[in-house]
Each structure stands twice: as C-alpha cells, then as structure tokens.
Design goal:
single chain; two-stranded antiparallel sheet; disordered N terminus
Length: about 280
C-alpha cells in the first residue's frame, strides 16, 4: 500500500521550489492573528487551506511546518479510522461498558458509544479501542497512513494505550492539516464507509449558515507545558476550509477553552459563520 510520506503543505511547497526560487504565491503569512494568541499569553500557530482557491493562510509559519508535538486526543480521528476499518469498532453506536473507575471528567463515567466518546473526548474508551486493535496492527496502519512521519517513521515504542498522550509520537500542524483534508475527500487508505463515519462524528455545529467539524486535543510536553489542538474544517455553501490551531501555554492554564476561543476569533475575523463564503 502506498505510504503518504509528505504532508499537504510540504508537497505544494516542494513542488513550487522545484520549479522556482521565488516565495510561494499560494501562501499568505498573517501576523495580524498574533493578537489572539497574545491575549491569552500563549504561543502557537494557525493554518488554513482554502480548497477552492488552493490558498494557504498561516500564522507562525516556522512553528506550523517545523515543530512537532504529541497529537493528544486529535489521535481519536486515526484511532477511530483504524478501529472501524479493522472491525474493532462496528459503527458509531458501538458501546464499550464503563470500567467503573471514577475519573475527574463525569462524562466519562458511564457506558459510551463511539460517537459519544468522540464528542466528549473520552480517553478510556479509546484506550480500550487501541488495546483491542493491538500494537502490530496499529503500527501497520500508522505506516500505511504515513502518520506523523515528517521526521521519520512514527514508531510505537511504549504502551499501546498511551503513545499518543505521552510524547512517544509527535506530529506537526502541517501534517494535521493534510490529514483532515484527505479525510474530507475520502483520500485516506480506508474504506469510504469508515471515513464517512469519522466525518459524521467530527461534526460539532450544523446550521443554515455553516458546518463546523473538528477534533480537539490536550496534553503536556516533556517540559510540563500544556499543548492544545483543534483540527478540522469549516464548510459554507459546500466549500470547505481546512484549519489547524495549535497552542502552548503554562501547565495549569485553561487551554481547553482558550483553543476554541482563538479558533472562533480567527474565523470571525475572516468573515466565516455568515454563510457568505
């Protein structure tokens, strides 16, 4: 099976530089977005790909392309794909019973379907999915997908149920953007039915003006700093715009709310949510 080794942005960037020594004309660096990160005293990056016009808009280009971080719960996208493809997850209504361990998030302390677990980002549900998939099968699909492969093959060194949470593998914002774009267009090495289910559970807001689909992620770097992700797309008039937000801040900050606020502030600045794109 073909292994997709290059992320979307690097493929286009490489193609451009192959033929020209000029700055790519399909990339806009927007430093005006810095204020949204500064407001919450975080560092980070934002990237958006306008599929209709093949245009990138990026804040903090170097961090977007060259800095890799643990995927945290954004890996639930891939875990879901592999689980569905292998039959470990039968469909989005499949229940995994609560293990009766009381955790700090009350939404996790009950039996959950896959769809529910995805929405509330239930780590225990997806840890059980990963255990049922198994290390060898999971590694096979990571290799087939070319997941987090910018700096070499992403290898599961440690526990099968925590490698996406403990900095065992790392992914760039660039790679995240390429992943969700390929998912949207059914270009990943999975059955179409599988990709359709994952797209369905990623849908978070749906109204007459727009659809907003994403997965969040939250974890800690080796230095203790918080890492937050949002990866997905906004769709208006059947026109998709793919985005990634990645932020980093102090260990004890409310990064879960900050990441969505930053995303919505940026999208609002760009005129989204009105059904006019």
């Amino acid at each position: 099976m073909h292994r997709h080794k290059y992320s979307l942005f690097h493929f286009l960037l490489f193609t451009f530089y192959f033929f020209s020594s000029c700055t790519p004309n399909n990339v806009t660096n927007d430093d005006s977005l810095k204020k949204y990160f500064d407001q919450y005293h975080v560092t980070g990056t934002f990237g958006m790909y306008d599929n209709g016009h093949a245009q990138f808009t990026i804040y903090n280009l170097q961090r977007f392309t060259d800095s890799a971080y643990l995927p945290a719960s954004t890996f639930k996208i891939v875990n879901s794909l592999i689980g569905l493809q292998t039959g470990v997850i039968t469909n989005e209504k499949m229940v995994i019973p609560w293990d009766k361990v009381v955790r700090s998030n009350p939404d996790w302390n009950k039996d959950l379907t896959m769809e529910q677990a995805f929405k509330v980002s239930a780590v225990p549900y997806y840890q059980e999915v990963a255990r049922r998939i198994g290390k060898d099968t999971m590694q096979h699909w990571l290799d087939s997908l070319g997941y987090a492969a910018k700096y070499g093959r992403a290898v599961i060194h440690d526990d099968i149920d925590s490698f996406w949470l403990d900095n065992d593998i790392k992914i760039t914002a660039d790679e995240q953007l390429g992943l969700v774009k390929r998912l949207y267009f059914d270009q990943l090495p999975f059955q179409k039915r599988v990709q359709d289910v994952v797209k369905k559970v990623m849908l978070q807001e749906d109204n007459a003006n727009y659809k907003l689909s994403y997965k969040t992620g939250f974890g800690y770097r080796e230095n203790g700093n918080s890492i937050g992700w949002i990866v997905g797309w906004e769709e208006e008039n059947l026109h998709p715009y793919f985005f990634v937000v990645q932020i980093e801040g102090p260990h004890d900050m409310d990064i879960k709310n900050v990441r969505i606020t930053i995303l919505k502030n940026i999208l609002t600045q760009y005129g989204f949510f009105k059904g006019e794109k």
